[in-house]
Write a structure and sequence with these properties.
Blueprint (H helix, E strand, L loop, with lengths): L1 E6 L10 E7 L7 E6 L6 H19 L6 E5 L4 H4 L2 E2 L2 E2 L33 H17 L6 H13 L4 E8 L1 E2 L2 E4 L4 H11 L3 E4 L10 H14 L10 E9 L5 H17 L17 E3 L4 E4 L4 E5 L6 E2 L4 E6 L6 E5 L4 E6 L4 E2 L4 E5 L3
Parallel strand pairs: 3-4, 3-7, 7-11, 9-10, 10-12
Antiparallel strand pairs: 1-2, 2-4, 5-6, 8-18, 9-11, 13-20, 14-16, 14-19, 15-18, 16-17, 18-20
Length: about 350
Amino acid sequence: MIVNRTPLLSPAIGTQRELVSLTFGPQGAAKKIYMQASLHADETPAMLAATVLRKKLETLEAQRKLTAEIVLVPVANPIGLSQHVMGQFFGCFDLNGSQNFNRGVRRPSELLTGLDGRLGDDPASNKKIVLDAMREVLDAQKPTTEFESLRVTLQKLSFDADIVLDIHCSLEAVIHLYTTNAAWPRIEPLARHLQSKAQMLSDDTGLGLFIEGTNLLWADVKARFGDRYALPEGPVAAIIECGGEREVSYETAEHYASAILAYLADQGAIAGSVSDAPALLHPATQQSASEHFYAASSGIVVYRSEIGARVKAGDPICDIVDPISGESTTLTSHSEGMFYMRRAIRFATAGAEIGRITGG
């Protein structure tokens, strides 16, 4: 294992943070895997899963079973991890600039203008040309804030990976995945190994997610050049949501880590026997079909559907109880699907998100 420490841009005199990445397996191997945990900082289940992954990867490396270069960033957001107000973590947004750590990643379309005339008939050569162009784009970045330096550092570690796994957790949730329609056939075995209960697909969320830096780069390349040049299959990326933020146990972390490694074995990154993935628990659905519930008024949230329940149109999701008037408003589902995420705090202000259902 190689430990790499990349200093981030100092935000203030006397302050210096660094990003730690761990590299396993043969350097410069034909296949590269990139995994990062807790981009929203206080996603503890993701960090614990990464800790277990590290131990397992060290063992596999000692046994010479790794056939791919594997990069693991166990704490992808040291900035957010240092942000806490009166004992409560606040890791989703950068408090110095209000930016979401997993939003607003620029679509790397600027490199496309320089590819015309450089591509040819060999997919492997074309892959290198695209990655070299992406490297040039990233090297040209001049971060002016600590937030920007973290983002560029993570992109430089991941842009040339064949598989990118961004490991998160939600509020109260079942384990679920996000990826693109194009990537789904190669990500589907991961969903089965994880026993993921919901998988949402989107060609472009419009949010600028970290994984879209990988998925949309290759989608753009294929859309522009696929009819003229021989292009490789391209990398794939997915978000893994490790259940809810309070589900921190060795048992769940062991499950996540073992499932991820079983998937990587399927993908040829680990030598040895390949285990059969269990059946998919819930079919993939379009992310746009997900139904989001919001509180029309403030009050106490009393859930009437359990997380992980399959609900039908008309089923009650929760009541919003006004403790002053005593009146209660029931939110019901308008679609059928998996109730995969809900609010952790049981009091809501008007307009607060209450939960999500996969939809059809």
